[in-house]
Amino acid sequence: MNQDQKRKITIYDTTLRDGAQGEGIHFSTQDKLSYIKRIEDMGNLYVEAGWPGANPRDDEFFQQCRNLQSPLTSIVAFGSTCKVMESPEKSEILLKLLASGAKTIAIFGKTWDLHVRDVLRTTLEENLRIIRESVSFLLQQGRDVFFDAEHFFDGFKENPDYALKCISAALDGGAKTIVLCDTNGGSLPGEISLGVRAVKKDFSPQELGIHVHNDRGLAVANSLIAVEAGVTQIQGTWNGFGERCGNANLSTLIPLLQLKGDYDVVSDAALLKITAFSRYVAELTNAPFDEKQPFVGRSAFAHKAGMHVDAILKNQRTFEHMNPAEVGNERRILISDQAGKANILERLRRFEPEMRKDDPRVEIAMNEIKELEHNGYQFEAAEGSLDLLLLRTLGKLSTPMFEVLDYHVWSDPLRGELDSVAVVKVKVGEETVQIASEGNGPVNALDTALRQALAKFFPILGKSELVNYKVRVLDGSHGTEAIVRVIIDTRLENEVWGTIGVSKNILRASAQALLDAINWTIWSGR
């Protein structure tokens, strides 16, 4: 279908406000300002940035964001209607929304009669008044007003006439956009479709939006069914961040709508950046990134079974529903004890593109990997160590880049924060260097000492950093003599990879993983 013929869907991003209500999610003022600059990559979006007056951080943000040049981003201030028995002109909530300077304001109001009676503790007519007059007041001040119909679908199920009266009150006040909210996240797709169609039948808002939570794991499905029923704006958060089980996941919804639903959502250029942006949001919040997310996760196009890999290398469509490059992602061929020659060959071709399946080095690498995994190694999460193994198989690491002649580590918990000391002796070419370094724990001390000893020979080490350290006991039946697996994640610019070590000695396993991390960093920078 021609791009001009596709139905346009507007994106309303509430990561900075609703997403920040998620457990463990926090944005500083500077985080929010950085976010606003970066979100330009996604094109024309509404960004709900906070609730002015709710906390000093949001007040500071709206004050500072007035100086931002954001031609593609519409910054939205969020709040509620005026209070019961209160005039909008005297409402502190509404006046602070106006003082934020935001051109677009979103306010929520109750549409479920249960909330009107038990939460607001007022009459149904008074609730309609505060909705209508709050919207009208903001509109008279020259603002675009979005009305969030809070708990609409629960209200529509129990008292449909009143829920629709609330929509009518907001439209009578002049609301530009009506947003139907499944605030409890408990509605089923059929209930979402019924509610949207009822609003479409009785009213003609300039724009109709959907805002759903994920308490039943249906936020994405409910957003899709709402679009099919006629909404033109989807609200959600990147990576599905949000209160309780989260919000509708924009990282999934945007490519679903554009690539599978044939809607016009973002530009093709923005779609190419969606994986990188999704990861950026996780990094900004210091939250773990879910690698099993559709479209943007590292596992989304990862293939492990040998027969699957063999098929996909012959025809991508056999086991991939789309080209991962369309969303800025990539195919990954996983290597494990289940791997066949096709898996190994595809990985080896990164270093020797013309290698054939009958090359004896393919089977040599496959057998070595299977033997190591039998002994506790796991290369799915340690691609750096895997690639070093393959390079050695190909004879490309016959001469080591450096040699560790000796290392010693001491740890004393009573020393304070820097409780450990490591001494390392390394040789690079004909030159020998010995370094002692303190650290917060033995692994940190050893990592610091190795990097300091090697930095003058390999400056790229100064650009990389250890970002994760994981230990797993492989057989607890042996107690303190159990074999442990250590996986270390290292970041170099935007790339992150894992390396692995396995031993009964946790420090030796850590040293193996650290040395692989350093070796792969040096090789990557060649």
From TrEMBL:
GO terms for molecular function: (R)-citramalate synthase activity. The keyword Amino-acid biosynthesis applies. Its EC number is 2.3.3.21. CDD domains: DRE_TIM_LeuA3. Coiled coil: none annotated. Keywords: Acyltransferase, Amino-acid biosynthesis, Branched-chain amino acid biosynthesis, Isoleucine biosynthesis, Transferase. SMART domains: LeuA_dimer. Residues 9-273 form the Pyruvate carboxyltransferase domain. PANTHER family: (R)-CITRAMALATE SYNTHASE, ALPHA-IPM SYNTHASE/HOMOCITRATE SYNTHASE. Belongs to the alpha-IPM synthase/homocitrate synthase family. This is Citramalate synthase. The lineage of its organism: Bacteria, Bacillati, Bacillota, Clostridia, Eubacteriales. The gene is cimA.
